[in-house]
Write a structure and sequence with these properties.
The protein is α+β, with helices and mostly antiparallel strands. It has one helix spanning 27-38; strands at 2-11, 15-24, 48-49. The protein has one domain.
Length: 52
């Protein structure tokens, strides 16, 4: 498993963008996971691998 970072839109009282990290096997699976959590329209950037 690798860590991927992406920017998503989060709405509470106003819409803000936030960097989030997820664990996934590849970037496509990370995108699917982010879309399931935040909604397809709210994923702003494609997930990129975080090198630690």
């Amino acid at each position: 498993m690798n860590t991927y970072k992406a920017t998503v839109k989060v709405s509470v009282t106003k819409t803000v963008t936030k960097n989030v990290e997820v664990l996934a096997g590849d970037a496509d699976k990370a995108k699917i996971q982010l879309e399931a959590i935040y909604g397809k329209r709210n994923v702003v950037t494609y997930p990129t691998l975080v090198k630690k």
